[in-house]
Amino acid sequence: MTEKNLTCANCTTAACRFKNESKYPKFCLTACADNDLVNETIEIYKNDEVLGNIARVSAEIEGEFYGRLTRVEETIEFITRMNYKKVGIATCVGLLNESRILSRILTAKGIDNYVVGCKTGAVDKTEIGVPNELKLNRGCGHESLCNPILQAKILEREHTDFNIVMGLCIGHDTLFIKHSTVPTTVLVVKDRVLGHNPVQALYTANTIYSRFKKELNIS
Fold first, then answer.
1. Under 8 Å CB-to-CB from 134, ≥6 apart: which residues?
2. What is the per-residue burial (b if ≥16 Cβ within 10 Å, else e) of 43-62?
3. Quick check: 28 and 15 in contact, CB under 8 A?
4. Domain-by-domain residue ranges, the chain?
5. 1 pLDDT band (50/70/90 cuts)?
6. Which of 33, 99, 118, 135 has its CA 20 to 30 A from that of 109?
């Protein structure tokens, strides 16, 4: 692999965190950065009121509560500081209980919210070309597709000004984020095997429990 093909994945210093230039590797993206591109991004933060405010508030929450708040608490703090009036929750129906609890917490905090499940509309998967043999029920009756685009459009109709994704499937979360008309965060990432904790697959990647032994050359 040539130096020009190396990326941050090959870095062992993360010296960019403190601008420790003496420890930048030769291929460092910061050291080799296009200054015009860097300046362009800073101008976006400075000149776009919405994006700039998101960036500032996020940094302030990190600075004040690093390692002290859970992601749920951080999300509530972010909603409050951004002065969002109505929050949309796009949830997998398999996490309706978790979304119900989140909704109750937000309501108790005085935050208006609206929950939409992924199966809303009850459209069979065959309507978008999924063959019966690839449905979970293998074609033994109706099986509703997940409809993240509909979730996004319903939340747009409800005039939410911030949306939360709760455990939508891979790809479905992509579609929701693409079609959401307001800033969106992911609170829960679905991983049915690991209890919705996908990073555990990476934590165990170099152990005897790894599912990536071939890729990582682990015996």
1. none
2. eeeeeeeeeeebeebeeebe
3. yes
4. 70-188
5. low
6. 118
What would the pLDDT profile of 2-15 be if each residue is shown by its tens digit? 667 899 999 999 99
- 180: confidence class by pLDDT, cuts 50, 70, 90: very high
Give the whole-angstrom CA distance, residue 148 versus residue 178: 10
Closest CA to 121 of 160, 149, 88: 149
CATH level 2 (architecture), domain 70-188: 3-Layer(aba) Sandwich (3.40)
- Which amino acid appears at position 100 of this protein? R
Chain segment 86-120, per-residue pLDDT in tens: 999 999 999 999 999 999 999 999 999 999 999 99
Q: Which of 52, 96, 100, 56 is nearest to 78 (CA)?
A: 56
Q: Closest by alpha carbon to 61, among 49, 75, 42?
A: 75
